Amino acid sequence: MSKSVKKFMPGDLWDFGKNESWFSDMALKGLHLQSIGSWFAVFEKGQPQKTKYRIEVLEESPSQEQLELYREWGWDLVANKQMFYVFSSPEELNAPELQTDPMEQGFTFKMIDRQLKKNMIAISLLFLSFLLSQFHLSFQDEPYLFLIKQRAFTLVAIVVPYIYIFIESIRGYLAVKKTRDSLLMGIPINHKRKWKLSYIISVIIHVYLIVLIALLFITPFYAVMRRETYTYKTVEDTPVISIYDIEKGPVYDYSHSIDYDWSLVSPVQYIIYEDGYIEGQMQGDFSGAYFKTSIQTRYYELALRGISEGLLNDLIHRYYRHYEEKLIEIENERFDRLYAASGEGNKLIFASIDNKVIYIKYSGKADLDYIISLIEKKYNL
Amino acid sequence: MPYESGPMTEAMYYVLLSLLRPNHGYQLMNEIEKVSKGRIKMGPGTLYGVLTRLLKDKLIIVVNDDGRRKTYSITEDGRKALEIEYERLISMVNDGKIIMEDRDE
Q: Which of A47, A117, A298, B24 is the most exposed place for a label (fewest CB within 10 A)?
């Protein structure tokens, strides 16, 4: 048994010239076309040979007599897929062309044309309905907060191949129309079209799409796995400052919650809440013996540093909204950006350092500068 | 596009012409060469493309199909179309005669 080699197909079969010259170049390397699948062409390893290939569109499978006639002209059927039939002929045979009338060949393109048009319309309608269903996304006023969710990646991973298929269907239709029009004007097909560049581009696009789709399927499992690892963590294990760091004395009735999340864009995400009571100075009426203290932290580490500014703005937009105190920007060279609002009840801090974005909402007795100094210490600034 | 009179391709004209007598693909090709006095050597790709199209437009029919080969024949519509094309070509040739008159002067 001779060896077979599978190779990725550079383009659609209707791109006659490119495919024919690709098959010929392969034969010159000793790879002779054997069959065509949806993504790959199978070649048989053998002696290098100068071979011509021609792709024909046949509406019905050819009769025995028809194939005999082709053979008599020096052309053997080597592969077939749907209505496309590939014939080959050794170059030294100098076989006459199968198609002797470009105009008539142009008429046979009508069928491909019609099918591609149908495809294009169906895909366009699907694409349109998909866009409409995702229309609300264009009204996102906090795009970065959306972007860091894994759902955003899922959406991209679905949309990108979709756009590719959409563009390909239009491109295919236009290319076939162009070939048909030139045939109808009497210009024969160029059987030696260059295929290398478009082959490379096609491989790159497909690899990219395959990686994207693979990630689409792998990442949810990965996210779940990561989430489980973090179930038993305490606040000390996380990169945020704890209420114990802030309050000097003991904290009574302490409770906390940790939410962990993961996405490709932001692989580390924490929402941590802690509260408790600290001893205060008892007043004459017994009030003020204990004070409630609480801290809520949202902490994000981003895979792309470039979006930290956008995320910070979105956090401010979302969490500062109903706060009566003025938000002021604090000059501090250790932070990329630092904003704070401080009132009677709560203190809000929004900070970005490199690829880290932090939002802290603290209510307690400690003052703002002290908390900021704790953040600096925590991140070795 | 179904055929609605108008200029035919050379291939279409000769296939119709050769099918005035029922014929199958292999013979048909030789017949075309004979009818055109050796001027036209039609490739099998073109031949079967034309046959498929003419069948669709009902200008020819399959009169016999034994599984191995099909025998085709021209229909009444096909004959009419051929006659119209013939008339058109005749008038084209007649109109073209001024070239000769021009040359004689």
A: A47
